[in-house]
Amino acid sequence: MRPDDLDAIRRASEPKLARLKSDVAACGSALVAFSAGVDSTFVLAVAREVLGAGAVALTAHSPSVPQAERAEARALAARLGARHLEVESHEQDDPRYLANGADRCYFCKSELYRLCERAARDAGLAAILDGFNADDRRDHRPGHQAALERRIRSPLAEAGLGKDEVRAWSEAYGLPTWDKPQMACLASRIPYGTPVTAERLAQVERAEAGLRALGLRDFRVRHHGDIGRVEVGEGELEAAFARRAALVEAVKAAGFRLAVLDLEPFRSGRLNALAGIALPVVEG
């Protein structure tokens, strides 16, 4: 987005930001489910602004979280001066999660919020906040059902802030995540119905680390057995094609026998559309 676009978005959404701050301040204290993504980083920044030491971050680690994201979460929490709790999550012990149905995220988020509830209780924090934003209501988000069941607050969505607005205000706050590509757990690279295994997750992580080393930012490596299918954002397709030999080498080095570059650009939610999941499906 251009600077003029960012300014316009901020001017139009100032009342939403004011509500966000008011809602978070009213919590008194809060635990932020913090993934180092665009949304949860902004929630943590605002929580630190209005709650001070009463805002605590929690990051859950599992084989579905890339090592690079773990390191970034630590760095961002330190940058914001937030107390940062790190815990291991065990969704991989749940056969319903491993089965990788279209509701996989529900079981993963249920485990995350269970850990958040325990940490918030131990720390005496009054609320738990996530990074679900207003635009997420238009996508297939079974994980949000887990949040609703456990009364996790979604202050961005409650204030009506969508993704572009979160990015615009993140830029104003000086957050390095303001233009970070949208992230999702590594399990999202495995087609529904194909079981999630530690080996498949590690294979995807190695392949994506290799592509990141080539300078790509907005992409996914989809796991199709021996085939690693690479989806790249519209703005990087030309660069990816120009470096296709290195791309193939990186994907094969991760253990795939065949590397393919999808001619359609990457977009979030594409696998849901291919699976025939009707949208919107999220309320609240």
From TrEMBL:
An annotated Gene Ontology molecular function: sulfurtransferase activity
Domain Asparagine synthetase, residue spans: 32-136
Active site: 185 (nucleophile and sulfur donor)
Domain of life: Bacteria
InterPro entries for this protein: Asn_synthase (IPR001962), LarE (IPR005232), Ni-pincer_cofactor_biosynth (IPR052188), Rossmann-like_a/b/a_fold (IPR014729)
Gene3D superfamilies found in the cross-reference section: HUPs
Segment forming the signal sequence: none
SUPFAM superfamilies per record: Adenine nucleotide alpha hydrolases-like (SSF52402)
GO annotation terms (biological process): asparagine biosynthetic process
Alphabetical list of Pfam families matching this protein: Asn_synthase
Protein name: Asparagine synthetase domain-containing protein
